[in-house]
Design brief:
This protein has 165 residues and is an alpha+beta fold. It folds into two domains: 91 residues, no CATH class; 60 residues. Helices cover 42% and strands 15% of the residues. The strands form three sheets. A two-stranded antiparallel sheet has the order 1-2. Strand 3 and strand 4 form a beta hairpin. Helix 6 packs across helix 7. The termini are far apart. About 9% of the residues have low confidence. The structure holds zinc ion (ZN). Zinc ion binds next to loops.
Length: 165
Amino acid sequence: MTQDVILNKILLKIKSVDRGYKTECWEFQRTRGYAHIMVATKTISVHRYMFWQQYKKNEIDWINFDRKKTVCVCHKCDNSKCCNPEHLFAGSQQDNVQDAVNKNRQVIPIVRGEVHGLHKLTEEEVLEIYKMPGTSRDIATQFGVSHTAIVHIKTGETWAWLTGG
Ligand SMILES: [Zn+2]
């Protein structure tokens, strides 16, 4: 089965639902358990596949990406059924735990670098935020991070090495 066929199979079962996130969640229609599809004898995790398809396809093939279980694809939107690539980010298992802790505290601190456990934004997103007009609160809502995180990026308190701020 080719990758396009897998993608189509996934897309057929997706329903866009507004869960109050900046864009709609793409919920994979499945009654229980994790969203996955069977391809030949292999189980494909839908959100991992969608993440790979969007961001990693040119770097690594699916088989190898899938083998790296240490790379955990986490949800920014807290919706385990969601597979909108915009709502997904790569982290380690530790990030996943930290992410849950952060959400409980309602504080998502941003610290230097893409590899850090508490990080929620990609370098591209940070640069976009840095250049973006509008209020910090609006930008924060759009990116699904805390207001403080945006202020810190704008003032160069975090990510200054990247933004030159
Ligand atoms: Zn979502």
